[in-house]
Amino acid sequence: MNYSIFVRYSSLFLVGLMAGNSLAFILGVGPAIRSLSAPAYIELHHSIHENFVRWTPVLYTCLLGIVSANLFVLRNQWRSIEFFLVLFTLICIFDEMLMMLRGNLPLHRMIQSWEVFSPPTNWAQVRQEWLEFMYLRAALLITGFSLLVLSCCVSKRFRTSQDVAVVF
Known about the structure:
Layout: H1 3-34, H2 38-73, H3 81-112, H4 123-154, H5 161-167
Helix pairs in contact: 1-2, 1-4, 2-3, 3-4
């Protein structure tokens, strides 16, 4: 299999999974979390913590690696719109990751220290802040995926002379 095709479609797959997960969060999980009581919200965080801590670093390493590899494949076309679309996708992913590390993760650690049946008085404010970071992160991932899809639409790497003849 051609390395550049593998990198391109692997990038689309991973970024698409993350963006789809983010869209599901915006449409369903976020509104549901808003309606949770303090004990239910704290219990939710406590129960998902172990799973997220285990797979998140692996997922982000793969995600950053494959999109960076996609950009590396395009290095000789650094003036092309495709290169810049993939570059902006990578920037969206970096921004989303930094927002997770500097926004959600510190809040999540704080929530992990709470007792289920004795939440702090500002628990609803912390929940709101955590959700706002999640919505911003979702917007970045969905934007990054859109840019990556657009990069495939403008790509000249995989067009053959027959494809061009059909267009004209």
